[in-house]
Write a structure and sequence with these properties.
The chain has one domain (3-93). Helix content is 86%, strand content 4%. The chain has three helices and two strands; from the N terminus they run αββαα. The chain is rod-shaped.
């Protein structure tokens, strides 16, 4: 041990001070490394969630547009069918040539 290491200040040696300071610096460096690593990971997760939210919003918009298009197609299919049904019902009530029979009767 050197002469400075043998000196004491109320029971505290310079060697103990050096060990304490180095240990504290090591702990601080470790904590800061962990902090910045976690901060970076959190930022990456936020970016990923933001991107995923935008992609999901686009998917929802596309699906809504497809639903609207399909609803229009269904409406177009239903409209002629209901018109044809009413035409068929009228035709079913009057046999072919019914107009000739009614015209033939006085």
């Amino acid at each position: 041990m050197t002469a400075i290491e043998h000196q004491q200040l109320k029971g505290i040696t310079v060697k103990n001070l050096v060990v304490t300071i180095v240990s504290t610096a090591s702990i601080v460096a470790s904590v800061m490394t962990t902090y910045f690593g976690l901060k970076s990971d959190i930022q990456e997760i936020k970016n990923a969630q933001s991107t995923e939210a935008r992609v999901n919003a686009i998917r929802i918009k596309v699906l809504e547009d497809q639903v609207n298009l399909l609803q229009k197609e269904v409406d177009e299919i239903k409209t002629p069918v209901s018109q044809n049904r009413s035409a068929l019902n009228v035709a079913a009530l009057k046999p072919p040539g019914a107009a000739q029979y009614s015209a033939a009767r006085p």
